[in-house]
Structures are given as structure tokens and as C-alpha cells.
Specification:
The protein is α/β, with parallel strands linked by helices and 348 residues long. The protein folds into two domains: 217 residues, Type I PLP-dependent aspartate aminotransferase-like (Major domain) (Aspartate Aminotransferase, domain 2, 3-Layer(aba) Sandwich), CATH 3.40.640.10; 112 residues, Aspartate Aminotransferase, domain 1 (Alpha-Beta Complex), CATH 3.90.1150.10. It has twelve helices and eleven strands. Helix 1 runs antiparallel to helix 8, helix 3 packs parallel to helix 4 and helix 8 packs across helix 12. It is globular, with a radius of gyration of 20 Å.
């Protein structure tokens, strides 16, 4: 097997981030502090909401947001099957029940028809991940009179009409894990214009020195992560521009092959570039690896399969068997892009 020459993901970090971290370390204050506060302010302004609460992961942000909504054990949360287990974990941690939906075959986003089939009086909250950077049709979901929670782990910086992704739901969350659009190593944020919800989440993210007792958590972000995040936020528009440029090259080079290329109905910031083929996805991934190129299944395993659900997920199952995620990140060179394209052409 050849040595991996081109990784699937790679964070766009360098001297600016190193200098920012060094400054925090030299200050002697490395826990939650002024950098976190500044990061929150700038994120809220960037997305176009009233406030932000930075925490230690996107999962923590979603968990606290759901808890702050005051859900009970009878509440059911709609969410797509074709997503990582983090949203499912957050639903269970908030003592609610998941109601799993199918996806749209082209966008990979939650299916509008499946939402309509599954919504009830008790299932009127929907988690909408903008999958792989492809912004979902939020207006049509709003027309269903549902409470929308936006999962922008893949899509910060994307737009829906004149609004930023993350500014439309009752709250939204972002992840800053090492392979995400903005890489801080770890970390996350909740964004909202609901001041009561923001106040509750701020209270819940730390447990010490409180006048009353309720279940609270140690979910704080450090100033080290926030310092990296502030640099990454400045870089984000340029990083998205680079991702879109690479996607355009892929579109042109792969057009005409027996593959289905990604489509964006609204905006697409290309956190991932996903191709679909009738050939076995695992086989293609293995052959690309032999050529020194790391590709991956976009989702390790759909939620309905973890939960033993067998019917109602035709699109999810089809995408799961066909989809291959190929490298796309700002540090990917023209030479590496050409190598990826030539390998796909040879294999397909």
C-alpha cells in the first residue's frame, strides 16, 4: 500500500494562529476569558444574530440549546439519518426523543417530504444540518410551522438569500473541530437572537459559584481555542473562496464521467466535495488510497442503521452506498488537485 500523500482533511493554520496562541500562553490566562468574549462578539456580528455562547464542542452547544428550550421526555426532535451521531447524542442528553427522517437525494439535506410525514404536535422541532456546506431550504421548512435548529458544523459562512446560515433558526450551532470550516482543535458555539435562551445557555455552560442548584456543565471554551478562532474567522471568507474555486475545477474536470457531482440549490461552501457513483463506494475509496489519496465515506453510518430502523430511508441508503468524499481544503495545491482528478478518471 502506498504512503498517503494527500490527506482527506487538513486545517488551514499557520504562523498567525501560533502567534495568537503564544500571546495567550504568555499572558498566563489560558481558561475562558477576554479572548472568548471577543470571539463571541465577532461571531455574532458575522452571522447576524444578537449573541453567541462559546463552549468546548458543537455537541455541547447543541445539548445546551435543547436543554434551554425546556424540552421534556414527551418531546420528539426531527433530524436526518444521514449525519454523524453528535445530534442524536444531544437529543438523548436533553431527555428528548429522536424522530429520524430521510434525506433529499441530491442535496443530502433532510427531506421535506419526510419532515412532513413525521411532524406532529409533539414533534415540531427540527434539527437542520446544512450537509457538507450545502445550505438547506429553510423557508420551506419554516412554512411547516416548525421550530428550526440550524446545525452549521459544515456551513459557517454560507448564505441563504441575504441572510447568513445560522441566523434563521431559534438557535444555531457551529463546531470548530480540527477538520471543520474553522479549525480551533476543539470548540463550538451557540448563536441566537433569543436573549432568554442565550442567558440560560451562558448559565448552563459552567457550574461553579451559583446561588441555586440545577444540573449545569463544565462546557467552557479556553482562551487558547478562542485565540485560534479569532484568526480563523478573519480567514474564513478567503477559505470559502478557495473551496469554491477548487470545487469549480472539480466540476469542470469530472463533468462527463459516470459520476453525479454535488449540486447546491442555494449556497454551497464545500466543506466536503461529494461524488456519487453506481460503483461500490468502499471499493473506490480503497483504490484511491492505493494511489496515495485519502478519501472517505461522508457519513460513517446513518442513524437509522444504528437504531435498527429498516424502512423509510431509501434515499439515505442509496447515498450511503454511492457517496465518496474527495479532498477539498484551502491548502490543497493545484498539483494535488490534478492528481486527485486523474486518479478518479482512471478508477471510474
Amino acid at each position: 500500500m502506498k504512503k498517503i500523500l494527500i490527506p482527506h482533511s487538513k486545517p488551514t493554520i499557520g504562523k498567525e494562529e501560533a502567534d495568537a496562541v503564544s500571546k495567550v500562553v504568555r499572558s498566563g490566562h489560558i481558561a475562558q476569558g477576554k479572548n472568548v468574549e471577543e470571539f463571541e462578539e465577532k461571531l455574532a456580528k458575522f452571522v447576524g444574530v444578537k449573541g453567541a455562547v462559546a463552549v468546548n464542542s458543537g455537541s455541547a452547544a447543541l445539548h445546551l440549546g435543547l436543554v434551554a428550550m425546556g424540552l421534556d421526555r414527551k418531546k420528539e426532535i426531527l433530524l436526518p439519518s444521514y449525519v454523524c451521531t453528535a445530534p442524536l447524542n444531544a437529543v438523548y442528553m436533553a431527555n428528548a426523543k429522536p424522530k429520524i427522517c430521510d434525506i433529499e437525494i441530491e442535496s443530502f439535506n433532510i427531506s421535506l417530504d419526510s419532515i412532513d410525514d413525521n411532524k406532529t404536535d409533539s414533534a415540531n422541532v427540527v434539527i437542520v444540518p446544512h450537509m457538507f456546506g450545502n445550505i438547506a431550504d429553510l423557508e420551506k421548512i419554516e412554512e411547516m410551522a416548525l421550530v428550526i435548529v440550524e446545525d452549521c458544523a459544515h456551513s459557517i459562512g454560507g448564505t441563504y438569500g441575504k441572510k447568513k446560515a445560522g441566523s434563521i433558526g431559534v438557535f444555531s450551532i457551529v463546531s470548530f473541530y480540527a477538520n471543520k470550516m474553522m479549525a480551533c482543535g476543539e470548540g463550538g458555539v451557540l448563536l441566537s437572537s433569543d436573549e432568554n435562551l442565550l442567558k440560560t445557555v451562558r448559565d448552563l455552560r459552567e457550574y461553579d459559584e451559583k446561588e441555586d442548584y440545577r444540573l449545569r456543565f463544565n462546557y467552557k471554551m479556553t482562551d487558547i481555542e478562542a485565540a485560534i478562532g479569532l484568526v480563523q474567522l478573519k480567514k474564513l471568507p478567503g477559505m470559502i473562496k478557495k473551496r469554491k474555486e477548487i470545487a469549480a475545477r472539480y466540476d469542470k474536470a469530472l463533468n462527463g464521467l459516470d459520476v453525479i457531482l454535488p449540486k447546491g440549490e442555494f449556497d454551497h461552501v464545500y466543506y466536503r466535495y461529494i461524488i456519487r457513483t453506481k460503483k461500490n463506494a468502499s471499493g473506490i475509496i480503497a483504490k484511491m488510497r492505493e494511489k496515495g489519496i485519502m478519501c472517505a465515506k461522508p457519513v460513517y453510518k446513518p442513524l437509522h442503521r444504528y437504531l435498527g430502523m429498516r424502512s423509510g430511508f431509501r434515499n439515505t441508503d442509496e447515498v450511503y452506498s454511492q457517496a465518496v468524499s474527495i479532498p477539498i481544503y484551502p491548502l490543497l495545491s493545484i498539483k494535488e488537485q490534478s492528481k486527485i482528478v486523474e486518479a478518479i478518471k482512471e478508477i471510474i
